[in-house]
Amino acid sequence: MSVELELRLRGPRAGMDARESLRTVQSVLSLLHELENSETARSSRHGTRWSFSDLRLGSLTCVLEPLRIAEHSDYRIVERVLRTAVSGLGEAETAERIPTGWTARAASLGQRVTRSLGASPDVGMFVAVRADGVELRRAEVTQRAALHLQAATRARLRTFGSRRGRLSGLVEGKHRRPRAVLRTEVGGEVIPVYFGDDLDTELRRAWRRDRVEVTGEITENAHGQVIQMRAAEIELLPTEPQLSDDDLRAGFWPDMTGGQDAVDYLEALRGGN
Q1: How far apart are CA 86 and CA 135, in angstroms?
Q2: Sequence ranges of the domains in the chain
Q3: pLDDT at 250 over 60
Q4: In angstroms, rounded to a whole number, what is the distance separating the alpha carbons of residues 21 and 27?
Q5: Which burial class, exposed, middle or buried, applies to 195 when counting CB atoms under 10 A from its CB (0-12, 13-18, 19+)?
Q6: Terminal Cα distance for the chain, rounded
Q7: Is this prediction's pTM over 0.85?
Q8: The dihedral of CA 183, 186, 188, 191: what is its sign?
Q9: Between vectors from CA 67 to CA 65 and to CA 70, what angle results, nearest 5°?
Q10: Which strands form 49-56's sheet, in the order they lie side by side?
Q11: What integer is the mean pLDDT of 13-17?
Q12: What is the CATH number that goes with domain 157-240?
């Protein structure tokens, strides 16, 4: 399987800034690295390496394909990363929110990718991902995306609460607090979580478990999306979600009737009378 990313920076060739154009390509590579780290179990400084399979003027057009897949990754992850990157840039063009599958850091990198773009498509950027020559995603991006991402990454509210999901993308270092990514089971958020040294044992027990609950300080943007968490507690949860009485009080649970409609279910409870 072959997978590639086409990137086209539009604009008058005589007026294009070479350094700014190359900086945009470098920012795209940084964005891909961040998305790849959030997809894998453990982060790495050395992500997948990319090569130019095509590079030409007009004003700048290039096609990137994997040169060497990172040891902590694979082709399936790389394809998913490219899909997430392109669809996320498309989302950023239309809404002031952190794109689906992106961390807040990915959104900041996306802002760097788009900040030099013009206000209209003829001075904007075209991106597309293809697998075996078939186009899977495409997006037209302008300066609007940079403004939306800037607003989305601005912290507005700090609260104390919890989120449930699966931890991935662990980053450890001698002189910094451990950081991981929590992929939530509700809402599909991808949240950077910072852990203190006092949680080292709990973090290692929770690592690569299907379900955990992280409680701590939550930083949100104006739309209620979580930008980051600082963990105070980690709880291991059963592999399969189990609804509590509190969950049921909030509304009807579709599986409680075993697939029966309300009338048949009530008749069964009453003994068929």
Answers
A1: 11
A2: 3-152, 157-240
A3: no
A4: 10
A5: buried
A6: 61
A7: no
A8: negative
A9: 110
A10: 49-56, 60-68, 3-9, 125-131, 134-141
A11: 61
A12: 2.40.50.140
Looking at the DSSP bridge assignments, the partners of residue 105 are: none
Question: In the beta sheet, which residues pair with residue 63?
Answer: 6, 54
Confidence of residue 260 (pLDDT cuts 50, 70, 90): low
For residue range 200-248, what is the model confidence (pLDDT) as tens digits? 888 888 876 778 999 999 999 988 899 999 999 999 888 765 555 554 4
For tokens 């990319």, what's the residue?
A: 50
Residue pair 161/232 in contact (Cβ under 8 Å)? The answer is no
Dig out the tokens for 5 from the structure: 């990313």
In whole angstroms, give the CA distance from residue 208 to residue 98.
25
For the residues 170-195, what does the mean pLDDT come to?
83
Please provide residue 211's backbone torsions phi and psi, each rounded to the nearest 5 degrees. -140, 130
Radius of gyration of the chain (CA): 22
CA distance 29 to 47: 10
Q: Say if CB 102 and CB 84 are below 8 A apart.
A: yes
Which candidate, 116, 110, 108, 105, places its Cα nearest to that of 93?
110
pLDDT of 83-127, one tens digit each? 999 999 999 999 999 999 999 999 999 999 999 899 999 889 999
Residue 99's pLDDT is: 95
